[in-house]
Amino acid sequence: MTTQDTTLLTGDTLASASGDDFLALLERRHSTRMFKETPVSQELISRMVKAATLLPTSCNRQLWHFIAVTEPDLKRKVSKLSDAQQSYLYDAPVLIAVFYDTSLETRNPCCTAEVTVGMSISALLLAAEAHNLGAIYLGGIRRPAGIGKALGVPPYLKCFGLVCVGWKDDEPPAPNRRPVQDVLSFNTFDLQHERYRADIRPHLWTLEQIADFRDKLLWYKGVHIDGKTLHVDADVRFSPLFQFMTTRLGLMLENVATPRVLDVLSFNGDVVMQLITAYNGQMAELYAYDLTPGIARYITERFERLRLPGTCTCLVNAEANQFLIPLPDGHIQIMSCYERLEHFEDPLPLLREMRRVLAPGGRLLLLVSNRYYPHMYRYKRMRNKNYSLGRNWNRGPERKYEPAQVERLLREAGFRITDAFGLQPVHLKMYDLGIKLCRRLGWHRLADRWADRVMQGYVTDGFFRTFSSTLAYELE
Ligand SMILES: Cc1cc2nc3c(=O)[nH]c(=O)nc-3n(C[C@H](O)[C@H](O)[C@H](O)COP(=O)(O)O)c2cc1C
Fold first, then answer.
1. Closest ligand 1 atom to the C-alpha of 30?
2. What is the DSSP string of 149-174?
3. Is the pLDDT of residue 191 over 80?
4. Does the predicted TM-score (pTM) go above 0.85?
5. Nearest atom in ligand 1 to 202's CA
């Protein structure tokens, strides 16, 4: 080996100061989802866009255009067209909409326009970090054409998403990264280990954080969606899902003379309220269990206001960082749990606790949704702003479950599945669209027929069970 070869192999030669700085910048950058209200100067935005224009484009076409949206009404409009649920769109003082003229690159099978735009976006994100700004790219925007129209962009420019930019109001933990040796091969593909399956849950919540989030959601009341403030709704719910629950619970209740009934993680008490309204007098005891005294107080005050024909005992989890339902073993004959398991990274302790308090021969109706919603920023944001933004305001984090996973957990906790249903199978969503279209065209008879079909098919134990938005289990 020559002296020159050895020099090439030493760390000193490999690491240059600017190389280290560059890697440090990349390591420092994380998506920012919480922003201060402080505005960002046009000068800084221009510097970010300058960085974007320095990245390669196919044939150096440079067919991009960037629009920095700062005017509040326009920003709200663009946010709504993008995704009303993602609060950082509303909070960030600047949205940079990224456009590209794809018309010249349509025949290229290598998606050159998409690659070019992706490169420019990464430059925007890195330039933001280099200037101590926070930024996040949002790719899943709902109505790119609508955004183009709202911003007066000619139709030949296509919107490729938005970059939210502003001063950071959070230091989120670094997301995990796969080690280089797992993703790099020299010369031929030499992967030795199993194919990588991403775990896209970046932030794990502690039980105390979940408890605090649920408590505050109830008491802050302000739930902003699309700039409107909604309130925790005190009306009894009549959704098909709730109808299913009360009907099935009613069938279970019929077989026990004066049952002791428990609703697990009751939140605002909707399920308990339905039970009081529908089955008052048939229950020896009705319990609502949740994680904090604040939630118990909320339910108590709500029920006093509503003057319901009965009442329930509110139970509070007896430990801060583990599940402990304050009831003796085998005390409960009928139990319900409505879309709550998915809050927890490991729901087995909760299921075991539910099993413990269920009497031999007792029955449990368990509903599990399969949505996905993990980010801790919602909790932090709510603590800062006293309200939460988003459709899932009454839940906390959510983890997506496949039926096989749920069934394994249930068996592990000691339950036997007696019935399993899918609620709201996805193919019914197509009917919903059809119904809307028919109504618009004035074809009400067809719309009515389809609406009936949706209601008939709402509950299924057939093929579409796996493709349903909620799974329902009857257990003992
Ligand atoms: C193509 C693409 C689309 C993305 N869309 C969204 C989005 O719609 N909402 C969101 O919160 N984050 C979105 N992100 C950000 C990613 O969730 C984020 O980059 C990833 O979790 C890694 O975290 P980090 O950016 O902090 O390293 C998107 C990222 C990319 C590359």
1. 26
2. HHTT--TTEEEEEEEEEEEB---PPP
3. no
4. no
5. 21
